[in-house]
Specification:
By secondary structure, this protein is α/β, with parallel strands linked by helices. It has a single domain (6-292), classed as Divalent-metal-dependent TIM barrel enzymes (TIM Barrel). The protein contains 10 helices and 8 strands. It has helices spanning 21-28, 47-57, 83-103, 122-143, 161-168, 182-185, 191-198, 227-236, 254-270, 286-292; strands at residues 6-9, 32-36, 64-69, 107-110, 146-150, 176-181, 202-206, 243-245. Helix 1 packs parallel to helix 9, helix 3 packs parallel to helix 4 (122-143) and helix 7 packs parallel to helix 8 (227-236). The chain is globular and about 45 Å long. The two termini are 26 Å apart.
Length: 293
């Protein structure tokens, strides 16, 4: 099968990010990393930490920084109906976009809302989120980034492919796409159908499994997802970015986490699937692709 080299979220390796993980992840053979800017994981005000990450990624590396995950939760809800608060949130996100660009990422992942979303507020929340996404897209363009809006579960905005595509209406397809989270998309409908509906708007992935009832963030084959059908659907729509894990890995050390991810990835990629064409190849990084056009 072509495309989809191995990638991982930094959060797979532990709760609090340590820069010492980076060479371990690189030496493991994992090719792409998503750096998670959630407050419990990465202190974006720690200048020493920021300096070490910049230093690591400043030169040619076997480990590439594919994406950065912007902060999430009620304090970062871009669909809030409080306009003043929304402006403050967007101002705060601009700092994280600066960091992503300085680190050399190509994509930033954003949640279109927190939760719960009341039924009677949903349409107004969708409009507020669209306005916020348009502003984030503008800031991304200025920094040479792409934006991936994540598929979310339960009552969150973007909990179906149809609603997520509504959120993307009017946005620049060269800049803004979808982060397909298999764990989320499998809860509110058929995952394979979601891949086909979102099609070439999918520019990155979050990979994990569940029981079809709730978020579990299990590794593939620990739950109910049809991985053969999922991979085949991704091939059909031409996705060739990293197969990027965002899963709970039961291991005590970064070395062991990497080993488990590599073994699981090999199992997924060697499971018989339609259109298998050999080993994965590296994708173009988003920022590089835009410069080449």
């Amino acid at each position: 099968m072509r495309g989809m080299p191995l990638g991982s979220s930094s959060a797979n390796f532990g709760r609090e990010f340590l820069p010492e993980w980076l060479p371990i992840i690189e030496q493991s053979g994992i090719e792409y990393l998503e750096l998670v800017f959630l407050t419990w994981h990465f202190n974006t005000e720690d200048e020493e930490l920021i300096g070490k990450v910049k230093e690591f990624f400043k030169g040619p590396r076997e480990l590439k920084l594919w994406s950065c995950h912007l902060p999430t939760g009620p304090k970062w809800d871009i669909s809030t109906l409080d306009d003043g608060m929304r402006r403050l949130i967007l101002f705060g996100l601009s700092y994280h976009l600066d960091l992503a660009a300085e680190f050399g990422a190509g994509i930033v992942v954003v949640h279109p809302s927190a939760e719960p979303i009341k039924d009677e507020e949903r349409e107004r929340r969708l409009e507020a989120a669209r306005e916020s996404l348009a502003e984030i897209e503008r800031m991304c363009k200025e920094r040479g980034l792409r934006m991936a809006v994540e598929t979310l579960p339960r009552s969150c905005l973007g909990n179906t492919p149809e609603e997520l595509l509504r959120l993307l209406e009017g946005l620049d397809e060269e800049v803004t796409g979808v982060c397909l989270d298999s764990n989320h998309a499998n809860l509110n409908g058929d995952l394979v159908d979601a891949v086909r509906k979102l099609g070439n708007r999918i520019i990155t992935l979050h990979i994990s499994d569940n029981d079809g009832k709730d978020e579990r963030h299990w590794l593939p084959f620990e739950g109910v997802i049809d991985w053969k059908g999922f991979i085949s659907a991704l091939q059909e729509v031409g996705y060739s970015g990293p197969f990027l894990y965002e899963a709970k890995v039961k291991a005590q050390t970064p070395h062991r986490v990497a080993e488990i991810l590599k073994r699981n990835y090999k199992k997924v990629m060697t499971s018989p699937s339609k259109g298998s064409e050999g080993p994965p190849r590296r994708p173009e990084r988003p920022a590089e692709r835009r410069r080449a056009v």
